[in-house]
User: Fold this.
Amino acid sequence: MAKMVNVGFGNVVATEKIVAVIMPDSAQAKRTVTKSREEGKFLDATHGRRTRSVIVTESGHIIVSGLLPSTIADRVAKDLATSDKE
Assistant:
């Protein structure tokens, strides 16, 4: 079964599908978000809050989250550490 990570406000993403978690401030991140909206590959997990991270997936989907990239990275690392023990 796929391990899931909480990306905020009850939204979860499959851990093995995450390629990168980046800050939304750079011009490249903004272009990536705009392009994903045009292509229909944009998912908003902010729940109306400020975007603090942009999650890039294997399939090219872009997920914006209200959590900091470090928080999501810590949750992914914790999830991977527990799966290694199994």
About this structure: The longest strand covers residues 4-8.
